[in-house]
Amino acid sequence: MALLFFHHIKRRKRHRQIHYLHTPIQVKNYLVLYITFQKLFPLFTYQSGLEFKYPDAVRGIYVTGPSAGGSRFSQLVDLVDSTDLNSMVIDVKEDHGNLTFTPENDSPYKDISLNYISDMKKLLKTLEQKQIYPIARIVVFKDSVLAEKRPELSFTQNGKVWKNSKGEAFVSPFQKEVWEYNLEIAKMAAKMGFQEIQFDYVRFPEGFETRDKELEYNQGDYKDMELNEVKKRVEAVTDFVAYAKKELSNYDVDVSVDIFGYAATIEEAPPGIGQNFSRISSNVDVISSMIYPSHWTPYFGIDFPDKEPYKLVNEYAKLENKVLGALESPPVSRPWIQDFEAPWLYSGPTFQYGKEEVEAQIKALNENGIEEFLIWNAGNSYTENVDYTQLD
Question: If the chain, 392 residues long, is cut into consecutive pieces of 10 residues, what is the mean pLDDT of each piece?
């Protein structure tokens, strides 16, 4: 009962998930129970000492470690503070597997820190003063650092750690030691004051279904499951997400996952990576589909999606609403949208993304009842003078 009540109180953070009490007696009974619960379990929820209010709807930008810890940070704070943006997704564990800040001297993670952000607590205090909602991005299974250090947790070929065409190594979602490794980092972020933990690369490497037979790796507890290889991968990824949600329940943070946009279009998308959109969505507070128009092949009847951002996002949003609407307890939808160019798609001049293209994506989301979004630009150079609240 106490756990259920705590969950009820905790979910107040997300405006779409509020459960209203209908009578004064209900309010009184819950308050009495809450006070009693806090007296019995005063340390049940970790408190960072920072206070953030969940925005009317999260509208955020991505911020790398170097940007967060360097001179550009003040410019990005000014951008958010002077517009209808209100949130930042900040790298805590970045794409290679390094931390972007320095943990305590006795931390087992000290050797993977790049110290881009010299004082994370000070940074978060600045965001608190501006009431900019902080979200910690943690890249999970793409981790060249851990793979090289612990090859037995990774995928190997001919005795060496396997890397994809970009030179990136992955660690295995089958390995629960990898789960714990990342969750300890997530807990550090929560203790520092981040209000949400966003897990990225929660999957196997792309195209894994074409190379799983030639790679060596340990399936752990999943080896003897009476499931085919595709289902085993789905089970491992889904189990990690569910476990992460449970492990972070004492830290008063929301849990979100970044996921391929096309994962919503088929049951397992694709069969190698282990992502099942509905099952992951059922285990998180927020689902963030990466729906950049540039990343779609001709789809939804659109020949060149990169050139038609409104049409692509509109069609996707309709589909996602249908998929999430079928869930018993759907998460908040907060897609990643595009504020960058895709020169790899063009032999001639590249289609440019500016004010009109960014606003078109926001408009399409808003028209489909999706109020929250995150904007991706790898270099953190965001278009100026964008209207971020299209239907207001």
Answer: 39 43 54 53 67 96 98 97 97 98 94 96 97 98 98 96 96 98 98 97 94 94 94 97 97 96 81 93 98 94 97 97 96 98 97 98 97 98 94 74
Beta pairing class for 113-117 and 286-290: unpaired
pLDDT at residue 26, as a whole number = 57
Give SS3 for 376: strand
Give the whole-angstrom CA distance, residue 303 versus residue 176.
Answer: 42
Q: Is-contact 182 136, C-beta < 8 A?
A: no
Q: Which residues sit opposite 289 in a β-bridge?
A: 259
Tokens of 343: 């020169």
The terminus-to-terminus CA distance of the chain in angstroms comes to: 41
Of 123, 233, 112, 262, nearest to 182 (Cα)? 112
Look-up of token digits 């943990």: 103
Q: Are 246 and 178 a contacting pair, CB within 8 Å?
A: no
Q: Which two tokens stand for residue 166?
A: 């970009």
Classify residue 46 by its DSSP letter: -
What local confidence, expressed as pLDDT, does residue 168 receive?
97
Angle in degrees, 0-180, between the axes of helices 24-40 and 2-10, rounded to the nearest 10: 110
CA-closest candidate to residue 376, choices 121, 91, 117: 91
Rounded to whole angstroms, how far apart are CA atoms 206 and 155? Answer: 13
Name the residue with tokens 């910690």.
Answer: 136
Q: Is 183 helix (H, G, I), strand (E, B) or coil?
A: helix
> In the chain, where does DSSP find H-type helix?
2-10, 24-40, 65-69, 72-81, 120-130, 144-149, 176-192, 229-247, 277-281, 309-325, 355-367
The pair of three-digit structure tokens given for residue 272, joined into one six-digit string:
């190698």
In the numeric block, which tokens belong to residue 331?
A: 């998460």
Neighbours of 156 (CB within 10 A): 15
- Strand-strand pairing, 133-139 and 87-93: parallel
Beta-bridged to residue 88, according to DSSP, are 61, 134
- Which residues are registered as beta bridge partners of 197? 136, 255
